[in-house]
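Reviewers of the previous submission asked for a worked example of the structure-prediction workflow described in the proposal, so we include one complete record here. The input consisted solely of the amino acid sequence. No template or homolog information was supplied to the procedure at any stage.
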Amino acid sequence: MRLHEIWRYPVKSMTGGTVPSAELHTLGIAGDRHWAVRSEEIGGIRGAKKLGGLMLFAAEFAQGTGTAEGMAVAITLPDGSVVHSNEADVDARISAALGHRVTLESLPTDGNLEHFRR
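From that input alone, the workflow returned the following structure tokens.
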């Protein structure tokens, strides 16, 4: 078997990128889909099937480092501007760019996957 690239997507349904190495856990690549957006209009964690505009956003861990826990992500909006997950206006800026009111959420530190299920 040959491995040519490893891709990681820090935010569900946003563009991610390649990484030189990855740590594997029972749930997959560490940091992959660690963040997601919750629709404040229709409820629940939503991806590109419901919010297709998410695919116009790109996400990477801030400063290009780390795996996930406690790590901020840098999100490039469709207009090219960047917002970080730890900025006070992150939800408002993503919502405005998406045209849909959302909240950016990270996977709970206790690993409770039910948090992301509908």
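Helices lie at 90-98. We consider this example representative of the routine output the project will generate in years two and three.
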